[in-house]
Amino acid sequence: MVASKRIGQQTLAFQNPPVILGAVAIVGQKEGEGPLGGFFDQIEADPLLGEKTWERAESRLLQQAANLCLQKADLVPGDVDFLLAGDLLNQIIASSFCARELNVPFLGLYGACSTMAQGMALGGMLIDGGMAELVLNCVSSHHETAERQYRYPTEFASQRTQTAQWTVTGAGAIVLGSSSFAKTGLARVTEATLGRVVDYGIKDPNNMGAAMAPAAADTIAQHLADTDRKPSHYDAIITGDLGTVGKKLVLQLLEQKGWQVPSLLHDCGEMIFDAAQDAHAGGSGCACSATVFCSYWLKKLQAGALKRLLFVATGALFSPTSYQQGESIPSVAHAVVVEGMPNGGGS
Amino acid sequence: MVASKRIGQQTLAFQNPPVILGAVAIVGQKEGEGPLGGFFDQIEADPLLGEKTWERAESRLLQQAANLCLQKADLVPGDVDFLLAGDLLNQIIASSFCARELNVPFLGLYGACSTMAQGMALGGMLIDGGMAELVLNCVSSHHETAERQYRYPTEFASQRTQTAQWTVTGAGAIVLGSSSFAKTGLARVTEATLGRVVDYGIKDPNNMGAAMAPAAADTIAQHLADTDRKPSHYDAIITGDLGTVGKKLVLQLLEQKGWQVPSLLHDCGEMIFDAAQDAHAGGSGCACSATVFCSYWLKKLQAGALKRLLFVATGALFSPTSYQQGESIPSVAHAVVVEGMPNGGGS
After folding, report:
1. Chain B 114-153, CB below 8 Å of chain A: which residues?
2. Which end of chain A is more exposed for a tag (fewer CB within 10 A), N or C?
3. What is the pTM of this model?
């Protein structure tokens, strides 16, 4: 077996592209009422999911997404070689509690809202290299846990700025399999571009779109340079959760680098809520890009409406301690190329 | 190229074992005054390292370890394919800030104090699979940042229980290279066993040894089962930071599983401080196992005094929020087999 081929500085082309065998998006009520409501697998009306704390509720979301994803792929936890998971909570406890239930080898990741793409890239590498047959990736976020941890508890009712984004309550899960599962694959992951940490000096935790846009532009431009392609190679370039503010900025930054992509670039943070939902600059959180990718975009690929996507999840790598100490917000973006199955999706 | 071979449920045998090209351990004053003081690369007398905050100081430790490690291996950051790093701070900001300086593709990890072994296992997989030629692993911890975040700020002067451990101030870094660098290798990583999350219901953040011992026992026993070996296959089994309390427990748990290893098993948390240093149950933190492994144990391998080690770093996957909400402390342990170079070390 020939393993991944390195292209350029930051990109790997999988020689035995891993396939997506199952994907699940579970969201909260507000997300379910948004424009993509019809695409999600499950909408949870109770933000506590019957649990006593927001944190337990978030871990429950993750567990539900993981279990449903395995079920859809006709697998049980014991089939999985590795669980790659992460979330926004301090010490990624939602993921650790989920890993305790699943009882499979666990590699905890932290890439903030870029975690789903980081996991897909890493899972793809492990499968392409022959180190795993099946890898489960999952991520979560929860509006109440995130606001309390990063900004103010929502009970505080502090006024939100217009650049602020709304942390998505939800969880996304994807199970990746080796190319031997190609027959039942929904789509395949053919390349990955791993991002560097970029920091343009933004210090406002209520303007994460501005903090993350430079990382997204850096990774997209690097991917195009590494592969010697034009953006039109893709039917869509999908950023994670830049929101309306960050999307404008990434388009400007890409234009400065010579790429005009306003009609190609879609942002999951902008898509998940509509203007009437008072989410200000859009959605954010690990679950934002994960749930939109695992539902809307994957279904488009399966239906053959789109052939090839560049999925670029972005993460703001700050903590409440770091910004209270006056530090700026470093960001990262990881990208994966996802293509429809050559002979149509498996389901 | 043939990639890693899966052995049993959780173990991978590298077919092209990655080699350790450089390793660095930087510690604080207290660690430098301990029994291993003579083995460390650098001892920092100033716990703030000239910075304004403990968190910046921790990130500085990480950056210094990373840079010195690359320098010792005659490399520059741009040579490295991936930086795999993690720490204990919320949102692993010490690692993100370090990644910003190094400017290479960054995969953030969270495995608490098991992070060095997690990174070595993952780095080994990426190299063995041909996805990378050079991977830099680094981790850090800092007594002041950890106490403030997990328990009480040290200015509070709260009395520590006898089961409490002392978070090591320090950073460890290892650069792994593909087998094509074997000539200059100090040692090689031949296998990895990735751990599951184990939770025996311990809820006391001042007794992490008890929380982590079951995870260490689970991974060690699984490794022996997967490889069909006896513990005596190794010259030493090195646990991360169980301390005196956790070490007693892991020995008991392993005895229940049929393995008597009291003379083989050494714990980095027990080794790093001596009784006179008032560290109670021993050292802890990501940097505990990392600095002891990167100095004392690696030097023993290089000198040929030992041939083959099982390095088992353990992590307590809790957050202050989770234990304040009454949750128990899930734990994980990842193991790597590290062997001396067949013809002696490179330096």
Report:
1. 118, 122, 125-126, 128-131, 149
2. C
3. 0.97
